[in-house]
Structures are given as C-alpha cells and as structure tokens.
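Researcher: Next entry in the queue.
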Amino acid sequence: MQGENGLEKDYVILLVTAANWEEAEKISKALLNEKLIACANIIGPVNSLFWWHEKIESAQEYVLLMKSRLDLFDKISEKVKALHSYEVPEILALSVVRGFNAYLKWLDRSLSNSL
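Model: Structure for this entry, 115 residues:
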C-alpha cells in the first residue's frame, strides 16, 4: 500500500501470546506508549497445545492482536522479548493485504514515524 509520502507501507497484524492477562496488558501498554502499535486486542484465555522440549505441552494463554507496520517489527520484537516471561515468545507479523483507507490513515497517525 502506498503512503502519502509515496513510500510503500507494509501494515501488519502482530500475533503474540502471553502467559496471563497482566503480562498481555503490560506488553500492550508498553508498545502503545512508545507508539510502536496503534491498537491491541487481548483475547483469552485460550487453550494452546504446542511442542516444547521434545514433547507436547498445553497451557492457557492470552492472545494479543496488535496493529502496526512492518518497519517497526524489530523494535516491537525487542520490547516484547524484554517484557515477556517466555524463553521463546511467539512474535509473528501477519501481512495486511488490504484495509479500509480511513483506518489505515488513523493507524499511521497513531504510530511512530519510522519511515
């Protein structure tokens, strides 16, 4: 998607799981305060099943869906790792193929100007 300054902007939805509500909220607020994300949705608890240390584990977790831009991913990852309790936190950026123009403009106004 092309921004107002002519540069391509890659919008993403970041997917992060957290051990509990407090951790999810702490991560969300820290990223919002630094304008690395424009919005966070906290969903949960959800039941997760996953491979860990060569066996299948299960846990109740909270899912964060956060809206941002790809150019902020490295800063977001660093901040999440610093605040997260997991040894290997899930931090995924899912591409936004298309979005409502007014929403994307709001998203841009809400984020740090790294472009």
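Model: Residues 1-7 have pLDDT under 50 and may be disordered.
Researcher: Noted, moving on.
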